[in-house]
Design a protein that fits this description.
The chain is mainly α and 164 residues long. Helix content is 84%, strand content 4%.
Amino acid sequence: MIVASSFVKGLQDIMRTLLESIFVPIITQIMEVVTRFLGGILWSIFGEFFLDIFITLLSVIDFIEEIFNIFSGLRPVFYNGSQTDLLSLLIQKNETVFAFAAITLMSIGICFGVTAYKTAKSISDMALDDRNPISKILKNGFRASCVFMLTPFLCIFSCTWPVW
């Protein structure tokens, strides 16, 4: 048994020396080449994938910038052969002026209705408490109507006023 044990130990020492001195450097060199080759392939695949994602992201950002340039007036638009900025084009269209007028008239009508309701409520509550006098309600209603009329006029005036 001692002889077999020493034979196995000697065989282990020979195999260890053989593996460490001959096979480990060879396998290490082969694995370095394979690792570099596979790493290069994986780097190329993932690099192109991330490059495509980056190019797509930059294309979206460029598209958003173009939209911003058009809507901010930095890039002119062409309509019926003339060049102008988008805001001036929209303000000068009859549909836009009609929409401004319709919204202004509706807001004045709603303001008039609410003012009439609050006046009637104030008259009915006058016997109990005089917190909201009719003059204050009518003054607030007239002020709101003036603001409703003034807002679109100022928008149109500021957009059509020549730039100094």
